[in-house]
Amino acid sequence: MKKGWLRILWEHLGVAVGVSLTALGLVWFMIPNKLASGGVSGLAIMALYLWQWPVGITMICLNVPLFLISWWVLGPLFGLKTLFGAGVLSVMVELLGVWVGPATSDPVLAAIYGGGLAGLGTGITFYFGGSTGGTDMAAHLLRHWSKLSVGQALLVIDFSIIALAGVLFSPELALYALLALFITSRTIDLVQEGTDYARAAYIISNCPEEVGRAILDKMERGVTVLQATGAYTGQERKVLFVIVSRTEIARVKEIVADLDPKAFIAITDVHEVLGEGFKPM
Predict the structure, then answer these.
(1) Contact, 208 vs 196, CB < 8 A?
(2) How much is the pTM?
(3) Dmax of the chain from CA atoms?
(4) What are 192-230's pLDDT values in tens digits?
(5) Which among 51, 104, 118, 216 is most buried, taking Cβ atoms within 10 Å?
């Protein structure tokens, strides 16, 4: 029980750190430069400049009804950590708005660094199982009421908000906001998947046993044998599957070329590998 409570505390602390970084990206870069890059924060930024409504208060006023509607329509799909993350984000936006000022008035720099910082914070929030709510909940509701997937619904919502910002502010600011949204998305992927890219190789050879044994002995990397059937020949073939680091893929190709110059190799990127020989689980 004690371990369970410590884990819950650690996860909520991680969510709080993540949404605080997201709030810093908003306060430092996005809000002062009118970059409404989608989401509830984008609507709140527009409300600030149209009616002088505080961004943090507007965000929580939008998130709470969305949370209650989602709970009623979809069931307990979004947990209390979503409400916690949305609440802390709103509070931190208001507090940081008092403590810190704009970092730059250049919209390009604001889009790059604001999008990156917001993506870093959101990625950390996702890593600890939290969420900032907002368009995540709206996207699931739109999926429930339409034929769109969650990803398509998110695109529709975010692009609609950016388009509205383009009408209210200027088309140029909407383009900067679109750049910020792209950077945020890529940074979230980077935090979630990591930067330690590995390589996966699928090897089809006439001597799979020898090739597999050579990789095992010379590189000390695990090899998995997959049973496959050639669509054209109808013959049963063995496909070797191996994952190595980026620096080792040249060695794999060298081993295969020495043993079977006519072998077929397909190499692909792997964003994250957990387990023996790579990162611990």
Answers:
(1) no
(2) 0.78
(3) 72
(4) 776 666 889 999 999 999 999 999 999 888 899 999 998
(5) 118
The answer to whether 212 and 225 have CB atoms below 8 angstroms apart is: yes
CA distance 220 to 95: 54
Task: For residue 207, give every residue at least 6 positions away whose Cβ sits within 8 Å of its Cβ, in sequence order, or none.
Answer: 259, 260
Tokens 């984000």 sit at which residue?
A: 89
Burial degree of 166 (CB within 10 A; 0-12, 13-18, 19+): middle
Mark out the alpha helices in the chain (DSSP H runs): 2-25, 39-51, 55-74, 80-99, 107-109, 115-127, 135-145, 150-168, 171-193, 208-219, 249-259
- Burial class of residue 159 (count of CB atoms within 10 Å of its CB; 0-12, 13-18, 19+): middle
**C-alpha distances in angstroms, 275 versus 81, 278, 279?**
29, 6, 6
Find how far residue 274's CA is from the centre of its chain.
Answer: 18
Residues 166, 38: contact at Cβ < 8 Å? Answer: no
d(CA 277, CA 223): 12
